[in-house]
Design a protein that fits this description.
Layout: H1 2-21, H2 31-50, H3 52-55, H4 63-67, H5 69-86, H6 105-125, H7 136-158, H8 165-187, H9 202-208, H10 210-248, H11 252-269, H12 272-289, H13 292-305, H14 309-322, H15 326-339, H16 344-357, H17 360-369, H18 381-393, H19 397-410, H20 415-427, H21 431-444, H22 449-461, H23 465-478, H24 483-495
Length: 496
């Protein structure tokens, strides 16, 4: 009986120590882990107060009340396993962003405590672990742990890598969950009168109220841990949004200071959307300063932090686009399109980059390759002329006409945009309207040889050959090597 009581005390103390030990390494908890911890604590508090009278020990405990102790003990065991996992930096979410030592103090301490609990339980209760006496949850938990250990070792063998010390330590950590599961689910679910030898002892009174004490230790762990997560997350977000405000206000040095602090604090908070945006904005700041090496480092970190490679290329392209680095933006957008399906948003942005680069060839290529007309807005004379020529070559005359008319409105003294309006009318067989525009162009620029030539084309198509010859001759006089004009004159003279 005394050995049985000792095992109970070891399991209770070990469970409390696991909760208490988490206080020493709570500063690395991420915001997601904090949210899970909050849900766990609320759930445990609700269960405790909802079934308090049924769970607590009593001298005259009914069978229905004692049945509730097993589910409650399962909750305690899972909470302890959560604590020993999430509060260990080597196995928490923070290990994915920042390398953590596997053989840390928390690992050693947690493994030792679970080993003591499991060993004490096995010495006294090993007869109770026969297969017939295992519950469904016992078998399920054992199976999950066994599969996890097998995967830890087997995955490396399948890809031809040897088993490392890290793999062994990971397997030990996973296996230690069983040294928590079996003792806690058995010891906590038993009634007090089977374990308490001296009811008057103050230590036994503590163990008699093990549920209240356990809840106290859980709250002692969860409360400060939640406060730590909330504080670090709040400070990180403060500097992040302050950096954004400074960036929008174009106070670059202040923005960089805020982002550096936010980036450092986010190493533990691990807010993905903030981390990626910080990388983007810091790259933008470096590009504005002309520090291309630092900008490239930030963009490489951005790509590494995003699992989807196509999405990573898109985010990099958007950063270059914001920085008005059109060539780099176009390359990154092209890399996205190689790995992803047709995306009209990306095609629009890529077209804008080529618009700024005045790269007609590549602009036309994406129009033809993807059978898509990009939704691109022009703001300047050059951009309207660029788009007008692109759409003219694609035989999209209405769209082309809109851009050339806009260019003519922006620069009424420019002959080229007026001439192009005439070319569109000519292509649409509106000869009279075309002649009006060509004549307007020659008034704006008297030596515009091609405007005279196109006027001659309109006259010839109207069978007004005398006027056509006159216009062709004018074009050749202004530009003696105007091949089309020379050929037109020779053709008409041959007819006569």
């Amino acid at each position: 009986m005394k050995s049985n009581l000792l095992v109970h005390k070891i399991v209770y103390i070990g469970t409390w120590v696991i909760f208490l030990a988490g206080l020493g390494s709570m500063d690395h908890l991420t915001w997601k882990e904090g949210m899970r911890l909050f849900v766990i604590q609320i759930g445990i508090l609700w269960l405790y107060f909802r079934y308090r009278d049924q769970i607590l020990d009593g001298e005259h405990e009914s069978e229905s009340k004692s049945l509730l102790k097993y589910p409650a003990s399962v909750v305690v065991a899972l909470t302890a396993a959560y604590a020993i996992t999430q509060f260990d930096p080597a196995t928490s979410a923070i290990s994915y962003q920042n390398s953590q030592p596997r053989l840390s103090f928390f690992f050693l301490f947690g493994s030792l405590v679970s080993l003591v609990m499991g060993s004490a339980f096995l010495v006294v209760r090993w007869r109770h672990l026969r297969i017939r006496q295992l519950t469904f949850l016992d078998i399920a938990v054992t199976g999950v742990v066994g599969i996890a250990v097998a995967v830890t070792f087997g995955a490396k063998q399948l890809i031809g890598h040897g088993i490392t010390r890290v793999d062994v330590l990971s397997a030990v950590k996973i296996a230690s969950y069983l040294f928590i599961w079996f003792p806690v689910t058995r010891m906590y679910s038993e009634t007090v009168d089977e374990t308490v030898m001296e009811s008057g002892s103050w230590t036994n009174r503590i163990f008699e109220h093990r549920w209240s004490v356990t809840l106290g230790f859980i709250c002692l762990l969860c409360g400060p841990a939640l406060m730590s997560v909330m504080y670090r997350t709040g400070v990180m977000l403060h500097h992040y949004y302050s950096g954004q405000k400074s960036l929008h206000a174009e106070t670059m040095s202040t923005a960089m200071q805020h982002y550096k602090i936010a980036q450092e604090m986010n190493k533990t908070v691990n807010a993905g959307f903030v981390r990626e945006r910080i990388f983007e904005d810091m790259a933008l700041l470096h590009l504005e300063k002309g520090d291309y090496r630092a900008a490239k480092a930030s963009l490489n970190a951005l790509q590494t932090s995003i699992f989807d490679k196509a999405a990573a290329h898109k985010r990099v392209a958007e950063t270059y686009f914001r920085a008005r680095r059109w060539g780099h933006a176009a390359s990154a957008y092209e890399a996205f399109l190689v790995q992803a399906e047709k995306n009209t948003e990306v095609l629009d942005q890529l077209a804008k980059a080529y618009l700024h680069l005045r790269n007609t060839k590549e602009f036309c290529r994406i129009v033809g390759q993807y059978s898509y007309t990009p939704n691109v807005d022009a703001n300047t004379y050059d951009q309207h002329v660029f788009l007008g020529n692109v759409y003219f070559n694609q035989h999209q005359y209405d769209t082309s006409l809109r851009h050339f008319q806009a260019a003519a409105n922006l620069d009424p003294k420019d002959a080229y945009s007026t001439y192009k309006v005439g070319r569109i009318h000519l292509a649409k067989t509106k000869y009279r309207a075309a002649i009006v525009e060509f004549q307007k162009a020659t008034r704006l620029k008297s030596d515009f040889a091609d405007a005279y030539y196109q006027t001659g084309v309109c006259y010839e198509l109207q069978e007004r050959l005398k006027e056509a010859v006159e216009m062709y001759q004018k074009a050749v006089d202004l530009l003696p090597n105007h091949l089309d004009g020379l050929m037109a004159l020779e053709r008409i003279r041959g007819l006569n």
